[in-house]
Amino acid sequence: MRHSITFTAPQPFWRPGTPSSRDAIAQPQILRFATDEFVEELLATLERNPSALPAYAAQPETWREPMGAPAPDPLQWTERKPARLLPLIRRGAAKAGAPAVVAPKPLKLYQPAHQRHYLVAASLVCRTPGLPDRAVDAARQSTGFVLRRLFPRTDIAPPTPLPVPDDLSAWDEYAWVLHGKGGEWRRVGQADAEGAVTKLLEGEERLPTFPARYAEDGGQPRRLVVGSVPVGRREAYQGGQRKRGDASDPVDPDPRLVVFRMQVLGPWKAMVTTAMLNGEVGANPDDLDRLKAARLPRVFPRDDDLDEGFDRNLVDLDVLRTERARLQTASWLLLLDLLLFLRDQLPDFWRDHVLADRPPAIGSPLRDFWDALAGVSMPAGLVTNATGDPLTLASEGAPLGASLADQCPGYDVLVDLLAALRRAATETAGGLDFEAILESAADPLALPPTGRAAGWPSFLYLFADPWFGIAAPPEPEDPSPTPTDYLAERITARIDALADALSPLLAQTARATAKLPEPGLAARAPADLREAWYRIRFVHERPECEPFETAIVSRATVPFQMAGFFDPDAPARPIRIGLPLDVSPAGLRKFDKNAVFVMSDMLCGHLDRFKGMTFGDLVLSVLPWPFHKDLNVPDKGPCKQGGLELGVMCSLSIPIITICALILLMIIVALLDLIFRWLPLFVVCFPLPGLKGKKGAGP
């Protein structure tokens, strides 16, 4: 015998005093709980007073306007009353089930971190008089729920927020289909006349449910199907892509292009920024004030009287030497990453063109990428007129104007990027391990003081120099950046153009290896970062009955939003951090030093460099001329004891560290209050009588 099955709201929502329309009865309900014992609270409520369940229906709330809900009663969660007394208890609490009347506002669900938990509940019943519960055979049937996202049928351009979906006919419903490590939103069919969507997409995520049994006031046994709303996964749902099923669908980024951006373009652009902040690099008047305000170690000493630019005769040779050494080390590693990418992902291009030094045919995608790489070369002045020690400066008194080769004996100076790649490939094939050499060096950011150390690369190639400029692809004929962009932005845009030249080449090249990381969340364009609207539908599946009986999909819940972790409207979970009461030396010595920091000999040496620094040095380093004084942090090398290099384990007390963090926090807040004016909104203190640091202290 065939029975018609459907999902309805929980039976207590059918009672007088609650919404009793046909639409409300057929709609699953979202229940809100404000305690971490929400499961115990639900089961106790169903046992003692199920008619009070509508009072838990989720309503709009903020931390300023909390939702009216039953007061927590932990006793009823742990103590079971005799069954014969339950009718009396229920009659005494019969009026507790009336839901609070609130003004119509958008429903927003908060996260467990905000001490809010939400359960979605429904009844699976047979469509016969009395709507009896449907028995579920767990071995052959399954019951769960799916999360659906609403997108407006007519696109609304940002930054206009998405409106409340009052008219659902103007919205499309999308299902969360598992894809890779996450998922994506795919469009689902339209709802039928009763508002149900019978279609489930292949691969759509089913979220689990559990049964909750209770007896209604008349003694009729009932069962609920309950599931936990996954508000904690809000960021994954919010950042998913949308698939419409047409040509407008976003295409997943090629993982090879993502690797190229992360390992090659990202470090390259970082070197450009470093060189520009620590040098001049064609600084124009618009960049001058920003460069002066950077307050970083500079090749050119700051002088507020220099309004027209920096005086090239005032060169800090020590800073120039240090900055060039760091940039050259980073350039070697960048060359290695670029070499490995071309060799592993574009083997034909690497073998037939780069190594053979043979340009591809004009008009092919290979030629566009070749031209972009061939146009990258070091500034000519760095080779022909290396003013002020191009790289290592054999001595501080080195004559200005000497060439790079003269100042760095033992190194070959290469100008073109392709030539540097070929030299790196030759030395790598000969057994030179760039990465191992730089990792084994005592200080990987410094080159040997004179000449070339054994085993180091035999050539020099700088992607960025704080004096002479940047090695970047040529400027396009029609540059996309506006003329008002900073100089660094215009240069990094040219570097980013390498990815545009590489993309069509990858599209025509089969993937050489499958050992590539999946594109991260940041590499995939999200569907919409504005606050999204969601609905939930219950699903009852009977695989063994198909194709005669398909899955049953319920009506949808009311539309709701999911709050982010730092939502300003979210209730705040109470957090109390206890600080030491007695802060005298005798009181602080009682705290065990139970937090251990393990430091290597190199990190220990870097920390020792700061031990001679005073608070006055920090103040002078941020003051303007003539009071300004650069920080003097000499290099002391790794930590040693008796000639033996060793690391250390430092043991500290967490309560004492917390005091330091609080004091530093208040100092920084007071300083930044000059900009943000946030001090009146930052902290509020309440008097706490009787909390004394010393016993017997006080008047």
Supply the key terms:
14% strand, 699 residues, 20 helices, 7-stranded mixed β-sheet, alpha+beta
Break the fold down into its secondary structure elements and pairings.
Elements: E1 5-8, H1 22-25, E2 29-33, H2 38-48, H3 74-78, H4 86-92, E3 108-109, E4 117-126, E5 142-152, E6 171-179, E7 182-187, E8 207-208, E9 210-215, E10 221-228, H5 234-238, E11 241-243, H6 255-278, H7 285-293, H8 317-345, H9 347-354, H10 365-374, H11 381-384, H12 404-407, E12 412-413, H13 417-429, H14 434-440, E13 459-460, E14 464-465, E15 469-470, H15 487-507, E16 533-541, E17 552-553, E18 561-562, H16 585-588, E19 595-599, H17 601-608, H18 615-622, E20 640-641, E21 644-645, E22 648-652, H19 654-676, H20 679-682
Parallel strand pairs: 3-18, 7-11, 12-13
Antiparallel strand pairs: 1-4, 2-4, 4-10, 5-6, 5-8, 5-16, 6-7, 9-10, 14-15, 16-17, 19-22, 20-21
Helix pairs in contact: 6-8, 6-15, 8-9, 8-13, 10-15
